[in-house]
Amino acid sequence: MLIFNLISNPWQFIGFIIALLVAITIHEASHAWMANFYGDPTAKLHGRLSLNPFVHLDLFGTIFLLLAGFGWGKPVPVNPNNFKNPKLDNLTVSLAGPMSNFLLAAGLGLLYRFFVFPAVLSELLILIIFFNLVLMIFNLLPIPPLDGSKVLALFLREETYLFFQQIGITLLFAIIIISSLFYPILPTLMTKAVTFLFTLITGKPIL
After folding, report:
1. What dihedral angle (degrees, nearest 10) is formed by the CA atoms of 15, 20, 22, 25?
2. Per mean pLDDT, which range of 22-26, 160-164, 201-205 is the poorest?
3. For residue 176, is pLDDT > 90?
């Protein structure tokens, strides 16, 4: 389990926590900002239009990140009825989270690629880039309540999508449990995707 590996290296553990907080905060705050931009103040009224990481942490999502290396933040409350184009605007709000993770990873990745930093700072940059990519890719999976599932809402009948939403969390946990205990399909695919993007952005392999 990831948490046990990190505890054996206190400095890496601290770096992991910082990277985790940065990735989750930028992800969830971007949802809130985009929703507010499109006319829905729900997240703002709930105090989620904030860069305070502790308002965005989800208990189970954080536990899974510590144990399995992938997870999620507390869902941002959104009321699509406040949007001019509910389906399209809701999709844009959903994709704002993963895209913010990618943009942050890309920006830091270019710094890491072209500039030389002290070893401790380089390790922190690697962790922040890595976990932003992990959060981005995991949340793009088309399974409710993850952000990628909003794409399906554009193509499925409303009742079909609502049913999918009802079983989505059970399906997601089943995939996570199977991947963690029996056959690591999800971790393997995510590792390959993150490794590819990390190398593409930074020009260097993950250490």
Report:
1. -160
2. 160-164
3. no
Q: Are 6 and 13 in contact (CB under 8 A)?
A: yes
DSSP 128-190: HHHHHHHHHHHHTSSSTTSGGGGGGGGTS-HHHHHHHHHHHHHHHHHHHHHHHHT--HHHHHH
Rounded to the nearest angstrom, the gap between the alpha carbon of residue 7 and the centroid of all alpha carbons in its chain is: 23
> Does residue 158 have an active-site annotation?
no
Token pair 């890595």 is found at 130
Q: Which of 96, 101, 91, 83 is nearest to 152 (CA)?
A: 91
Catalytic residue among 28, 123, 158, 159: 28
Q: What are the boundaries of each domain within the chain?
A: 2-202
DSSP symbols for 6-71: HHTSHHHHHHHHHHHHHHHHHHHHHHHHHHHHTT--HHHHTT-SS--GGGT--HHHHHHHHHHS--
Q: What is the pLDDT of residues 70-113, one digit of tens each?
A: 667 788 999 999 999 998 999 999 999 999 999 999 999 999 99
- 136-172 burial, b if ≥16 CB within 10 A, otherwise e? bbbbbbebbebbbbbebbeeeeeeebeebeeebeeeb
Neighbours of 185 (CB within 10 A): 11
